[in-house]
Design a protein that fits this description.
Blueprint (H helix, E strand, L loop, with lengths): L7 H11 L6 E7 L2 E6 H17 L7 E5 L4 H11 L4 E4 L6 H10 L4 E4 L2 H10 L8 E4 L16 E2 L2 H10 L1 H14 L5 E7 L7 E6 H14 L8 E4 L6 H14 L2 E4 L6 H8 L3 E4 L1 H16 L3 H22 L6 H20 L7 E4 L6 H10 L3 E6 L6 E4 L12 E2 L3 E6 L6 E6 L12 E7 L5 E2 L3 H7 L6 E10 L2 E7 L4 E2 L5 E2 L1 H8 L7 E5 L6 E6 L2 H8 L3 H5 L4 E2 L2 H15 L8 E7 L18 H7 L1 H9 L6
Parallel strand pairs: 1-11, 3-4, 3-5, 4-8, 5-6, 6-7, 10-11, 12-13, 13-14, 26-28
Antiparallel strand pairs: 1-2, 8-9, 9-20, 14-15, 15-16, 17-18, 17-19, 19-21, 21-22, 23-24, 25-26, 27-28
Helix pairs in contact: 1-9, 2-3, 2-6, 2-7, 4-5, 8-9, 12-13, 12-14
Keywords: Coiled coil, Fatty acid metabolism, Ligase, Lipid metabolism
Protein name: AMP-dependent synthetase/ligase
Pfam families: AMP-binding, AMP-binding_C_3
């Protein structure tokens, strides 16, 4: 790029002045069962009309503007509209409860709220009158009025189509004001409030500036300079989460890439085959499901087909390891790899559309064996690490150099330190430029300093001081170390279990070991101040149905836990086998089987799918205590 944009609203105009004409496609979505393109010109015109409307109703720079909807072109239109007049994006997870939504709307003093569907509108109507600053509710669908006939709300309601129409009418009056507002926005101005509750406590509004977003994208793309204007991203992670906002939306704004919006998680596989994306941001769980399904499909029939599949995986592993060592694979191994591609790997790749440059995995740790599996197939998975408070990326895998089980190299122009948890001594401070592929250090808390660190928590100066110290270090609460120059995450400090003998146990790596079993979909480790480790385990529903012939009625039973000897023995076989990979004090000695998965709706997971440890332990304390009373199950 010649001149670098320094705020989010300048990015879109920069693309059409340097990379793409106005009539080039920017967004893509499914409409009436057909994929439809939306051009850069249409996006700019729609955003200008919405900006005009917002100015007309008195919205000004710094006002907080709310979103509660699934990913869609409307999200981009509305965000571009408010960003260019200095508005602040307050995106709310659609899965939050009414009480949580009400708290966020009032804490941020949200002025207008974009609502995505009738279900979400009903949620908002129940709490709208408890939110005195809310002046407009804007459903993106036209027949919204039939849903509010029996409700009286103080805020005005108007469809997004009517907002655009009204805005177009008064655009000549406001055009100069829009342009002036866009040019007057400073990099240090607030761009977004993203509320994060973590695993405990009241939601906190993370204040992210235009500079936070712009510099984070710029640094990340310097680290992986393989993204270009021909790329197509398939977006399915929520734009209300900072990962998808930065790593898809803002990356595409910077690089001139195209964004296709998946219809839903259920239709993701179908959408991948249709769109044929070149890049996808995802969470480890998606990759785990692809891994489990591929293994199952390749081996379930046994015989020659299974032998060929396992042979291909072995060839892929050998080929990957040779390539990673910096050597050139020999003629025989290269020929075997070509055959493995033809017989097995290309068929799996075709399910992703066949054009994928890489998956970018974030939000949680990717199990090492899953990363290696995709590497064996020849599908690149880049891992990244960060938090909402760091915009989010602080480390990401380099495209040409990968150490499985790590989250990559420090991005440019920031610092990452490892601090001893007890002594508070800084064990090391690493930067992008200090990278040494032989460097290793002891583990401790991960600290971050630089352009990616948030401005602070909205209306919470004391909480801000607790996490950003006087030297500017943001304390992540995560435990990690550097391994071969790359950052490796162990777990959260708050997750750490200390058993009755004083042994420290980080649940995540232990849980990831057991998640290698295709019989386990979710696992929650227990053992703080206890003599041994136990777990709550959720087996995959489909697998239980296939293996034991179970019907839907079984999963609809009111009993929370499954008490079945055969299912227990079936799980025990894998637990005992995988326990051999762990230290004795880390091994599961007893477990209970949960009928339904842990969920956001039941208050057990955060919107970013992290377990709410204290809530789960309290909620299931009685069956857990009974499990400990029954003793060590097999020792």
């Amino acid at each position: 790029m010649n001149s670098r944009p320094d705020t989010v609203p300048k990015l879109l105009r920069h693309i059409v002045s340097t990379m793409h004409p106005l009539d080039a496609p920017f967004l893509m979505h499914k409409k009436d069962e057909q994929w439809v393109d939306i051009t850069y010109g249409e996006t700019i015109d729609t955003a200008d009309a919405i900006s005009s409307y917002l100015l007309d109703i008195g919205i000004k720079k710094g006002d907080r503007i709310g979103f509660i909807l699934e990913n869609s072109p409307e999200y981009i239109f509305y965000d571009q509209a408010l960003q260019q007049i200095g508005g602040v994006n307050v995106s709310i997870y659609p899965t939050l409860t009414e009480n949580e939504i009400e708290y966020i709307l009032n804490d941020a003093q949200v002025r207008t709220l974009l609502v995505g569907n009738p279900f979400l509108l009903k949620k908002i109507l129940k709490i709208a009158n408890n939110c005195p600053e809310l002046i407009r509710i804007i459903p993106i669908f036209e027949d919204y009025q039939k849903h509010i006939q029996s409700s009286y709300v103080n805020a005005g309601t108007i469809s997004l189509a009517s907002v655009i129409s009204e805005g177009e009418r008064c655009l000549p009056e406001h055009r100069k004001a829009i342009e002036s507002a866009r040019e007057s926005i400073l990099p240090t101005d607030l761009s977004s409030l993203i509320y994060t509750s973590g695993t405990t406590g009241i939601p906190k509004g993370v204040m992210l500036t235009h500079q936070n977003f712009i510099e984070n994208v710029r640094a990340s793309l310097e680290q992986i300079p393989v993204v270009d204007k021909r790329d197509i991203f398939l977006s399915f992670l929520p734009l209300s989460h900072v990962f998808e906002r930065t790593a898809t939306y803002h990356v595409c704004l910077w690089g001139g890439c195209k964004i296709a919006f998946a219809q839903s998680l259920d239709l993701l596989a179908k959408n991948m085959a249709e769109v044929r994306p070149t890049i996808m941001n995802c969470v480890p769980r998606l990759l785990e499901r692809i891994h489990d399904k591929a293994i199952k499909t390749g081996t379930q029939d046994g015989g020659a087909k299974a032998k060929i599949f396992l042979w291909a995986l072995d060839v892929g592993k050998k080929y990957r390891e040779v390539a990673e060592s910096g050597q050139k694979p020999g003629l025989l191994l290269s020929a075997q790899k070509t055959l493995a591609d033809k017989l097995v790997f290309n068929k799996i790749k075709a399910k992703t559309g066949g054009r994928l440059k890489f998956f970018d995995s974030g939000g949680a740790a990717l199990p090492k064996n899953v990363g290696e599996f995709f590497g064996n197939l020849g599908i690149k998975v880049l891992e990244g690490y960060g938090l909402t408070e760091t915009s989010p990326i602080v480390a990401i895998t380099e495209h040409h150099r990968q150490i499985f089980g790590t989250v990559g190299r420090v991005i440019p122009r920031i610092e990452i330190a490892i601090q001893d948890v007890e002594s508070k001594e800084l064990l090391t401070v690493q930067t992008h430029n200090s990278f040494n592929e032989k460097f290793e250090c002891e583990e401790g808390e991960i600290l971050v300093r630089g352009h990616c660190v948030m401005k602070g928590y909205w209306n919470k100066p004391e909480e801000t001081e607790q996490v950003i110290d006087q030297d500017g270090w943001f304390h992540t609460g995560d435990i990690g170390r550097f391994y071969r120059g790359n950052l490796k995450i162990t777990d959260r400090i708050k997750n750490m279990l200390v058993n009755a003998y004083g042994k420290n146990i980080y649940p995540t790596p232990v849980e990831n070991t057991y998640l290698k079993s295709p019989k386990i979909e979710q696992i929650f480790l227990i053992g703080d101040k206890r003599e041994f480790i136990t777990a709550i385990i959720v087996p995959p529903k489909e697998t239980l149905q296939e293996v034991f012939g179970l019907r839907e009625e079984f999963f609809a039973r009111p009993e929370i836990f499954i008490d079945d000897r055969e299912i227990r023995e079936w799980l025990t076989a894998d637990i005992q086998r995988l326990s051999n990979e762990l230290a004795k004090f880390e091994r599961i000695k007893n477990f209970i089987i949960k009928r339904k998965p842990f969920s956001i709706e039941d208050g057990e997971l955060t919107p970013s799918m992290k377990a709410k440890r204290k809530i789960i332990e309290k909620k299931y304390s009685e069956p857990v205590d009974k499990m400990y009373l029954s003793g060590d199950d097999w020792n």
